Structure formats: C-alpha cells, structure tokens
Amino acid sequence: MSLNKKKSETFWLLAILGLLILLSFFAALGSVPLFDVDEGAFSEATREMIVSKNYLTTYLNGAPRFDKPILIYWLQLAAVKLFGLNEFSFRLPSALAGTAWATSIFLFVRKEADNRQAFLATAMMVLSLQVIVIAKAAIADGLLNCFLAITMFALLHHYKTGSKHALHLAFAAAGFGMLTKGPIAIIIPFAVTFLFSLQEGTLKKWLRMILSPSGIILFLVIALPWYLLEYHDQGMDFVNGFFFKHNISRFNSSFEGHSGSLFYYLPVIILGLMPFTGLFFTVFFRAKALFSDSTNRFLFIWFGFVFLFFSLSGTKLPHYMIYGYTPLFILMARAFPLSSHPWRCALWPLILLAGLVCLPFFLQRTLLEINDTYIKALLAGATELMGETYLLVVIASIAGVTAIQFLSRFPAEGKLIATGVVFSVLINFYLMPLSGKLLQEPVKEAAFLARKEGYKIVMWKSYNPSFLLYSESFVEKRSPKPGEIVLTTVKQLDKLEHPIVLYSKYGIVMAKLRQ
Fold first, then answer.
1. Count of C-beta atoms within a 10 Å radius of residue 326
2. Which candidate among 130, 236, 423, 440 keeps its CA 20 to 30 Å from the CA of 21?
3. How much is the pTM?
4. Which residues are 59's β-sheet partners?
5. Per residue in 104-143, pLDDT tens?
6. C-alpha–C-alpha distance, residues 219 and 222, integer Å
7. In this structure, are 390 and 457 located in the same domain?
8. What gap in Å lies between CA 404 and CA 346, rounded to an integer?
9. Given 385, 404, 439, which residue is the final one in a domain?
10. Residue 5 CB contacts under 8 Å (≥ 6 apart), including other chains
C-alpha cells in the first residue's frame, strides 16, 4: 500500500472512530440523572469539596470518604468549574478518559498489526455494552482503565524494544492510576508482567524493568505527595479506611453485600461484551493458534489474571471485570479472521434483544408473586414504562440487526460494527433514559422539592447519595422522630406513625411525621 493511500485510510478510520466515540461516550451525556449509589456518591463528594474548599480530603454527607483516591474528584471539580453543577460535568472526565483509552488501543494495535485490526479492536471497545456505561459514568473506573491500558501497553513495548521512554510512560501512568483507584493500578501490571516473564523465561529482564530507579522515582513523584498529605491530615483513619477497609477487606470478604460464586463473572462478560460476545468464544476456541504469538500470550495472561483475581475476591462487582476487557478486545479483533461463520456473532445480540422483548411480560408475572412492597412498586413502574413504545423500539432494533446481517452488503467487519451502532443508539437514547426515569428520577424530584421547600431530611432505610447532590444539603441517617421529614421507601411507610406523604413515585417516598 502506498504511503498516501495508507494516510488516507488512517484518516477515514480515525474519522469513523471519532464519530463512534461521540455516539457512545458523549451523546446524551448529561440527559440522565446520576445513578445511585456510586455516581451519586462520587458527585456529591465533589460538590462538598467545592462548598468546603477542602481539595485534599473528600467528604460525603459531612463525613470523610476514604473509598477512592483524589484524582477523579479533581477532574470532576475542574469540569464543574467549566460547565456548572450538572450531570454533564460530573460524567465528562469519564467520557474523556474513555476516549484516551480507545486511542491507546488504536495506537498499540496499529503498531503491532495494521490500521484495520486497530480499528476493529477499538470500535468493539467503544461500542460494547459495559464500556458504554462505564465511559458515561461519574465514577473512577473509566479513568483507571485508561491509565491501566497505557501502563500495560508501555510495559510490553519496553519489554520488546528496551525503550526508556516507554518505561517512563508506564510508571507515570501507573502513578496516575494509583491516584485514581489505589493499589490495583500496580497490582495488575506487576502480576501480569511477572507471569508473562515467567512464561517467557525472562525474569531477570522483568526485575530490571520493575526495579528501574528512574521509573520508581517518577511513580513516587506523581502518586506519593497526596498520600503523604492525606495521612498528615487524617492520620490512621485514612490508613484504616482506605487501605484496610476499601482495599484489603474488599478482597478478603464480601463488602456491602457484593458477593458471588466463582462463576460470577461469566454472565457479566457475556452481557458486558454485547453485541460482540460471539467473538469472546471464538478467542478461546482458537486459543491454540493465537497463543503462538508473544503479544497474544501477554494479552491472554492479562485477561486471565484479572478474571481469576476478581473471581477469588470476596467482593464482586460487575465493573471489576472491565480491567481485563482491553486485552479481550484486541484478541477478539485478532480472532475475527479465524471465525469460520462470522454471522453467528449476531445470534448473541439477537438473543439479548429477544429477552428484552419478553421482559415486560416476565415482570408482569413476577409482579403477582412479589410481596416486598418496594420491589412491587418498582416492578409496577417498570411495566408502566415498558409499554408499546418500548416494544416497538426493541423490535425495531431486532429488525435492524437482522437486516444488517442478512440483507446488507457490508463486509463481515462492517456488519459487526453496524450491529454495535444499533446497540449504542438503543442504550444511549432509550434504555439508559428509561432506567434513569425509573430508578433515579423519583430521587431527583424529591430532592428538588426538599430544596425548594427548605426541608430538613432524615434518610431512613434507604441510601441515595444523589439526593444530597440534588437537594444541595446534608441528611441525618437514623430513625425519624415526630414532626420530622423522612426519605425512605414505600416498604417502610407502614412502620411510621401517622405519616403525611409529601412525595411518592416508583417506591421512593418522602413523608412528614405528625407531631
């Protein structure tokens, strides 16, 4: 291929990727209320930082919050200063991090293979269901994945070429990752590169890489100052809260009820990679052929370590598996030419869409068997929202995917990406707004009412940090007393003495207790 033709191809592929990123990460970025618990907690902690002007320690409802390090809060703070206190601002850092994450995949694969494979790997990342959600979420995981990908790519490049610049980039990215989510930003690169070097028989080379004095100094210059200042400010409360409670305890035990079996992440992967799940199985059916390449071995070890590490962890959350998605997208792009029947990849998204068509009917039947009044109110709200429009939208999506596969003249890669576009449109412009209307709109409306009327709220038997953000006030978390106004769920309403309901929707209730 001539140089000019290659430049032209690169331009058009990047232009298409840019449009896909706008569609998946930025479209309707601020149109859905912040979801509880995580989005509400991160965003409220940033709001309290603005109010208190304490830019070192994060607080939630006036109490120190040691869940995560500081970087995501600083970035949200900068976005709020530029664009105001709204959903768009709180989610913008994640969307930008998702863009940088996608860019790192494209540049790495392009260097390892070619433009087209780089495009396919990146497009699948941009259009996969779980990444779409994470790259629009006001939490730290999109940012961590960006730094984690850069760290891993740079370490592999240094391993192959001996590049000092790549090594320094890896340590710098790990430093920023440490400021984003803590030790996991170094645990994964350390373990994966060790296992890879062990498999390759190059442990001495690994030791020289990991123990690079200039790299360690660069890492410490970036990450250490905040940790030292935070310890100076909060003392052992920070050490116990962050390192022991939110890191070690999460691995050793089930934290906040987030547990699961050893197979917890299999359905997470199947759903999270939609609509490209079929290629996940192709990767493992063709693992022997792929494993002959050293880069592929590195990618397999990367995914395998993340899968095993978090499968063995006491605390299990769906977004933990995303730390191992980057190598999967690259392996899936490499496995695609080995797929003997590419059209079968469309079966997985069609099965999911068929399930979405059946969902309202399943919920209606479940509604008759549920006794929990809050769940019952939530399901009733869901069946109300999932009317004719919902069915028409999902059926149209099925028709679109089917037409792409069997009626269009797109090449196989084009059909794959076009199916991803259908999913991205469905998620961003219909399913996420629908979920927001059901799960978060009641909390937001109740918060606006409380702010308008100047209510002092007691939050009881519910935890909705987004309420704090939207009401721009603190709450007391305890049993309510006569004369107080309580935010709770409909399930708790009959336990209150003479409540006067001020607001009620989809199971969320704000009520005043008579004196």
1. 26
2. 440
3. 0.93
4. 64
5. 999 999 999 889 999 999 999 999 999 999 999 999 999 9
6. 5
7. no
8. 9
9. 439
10. none
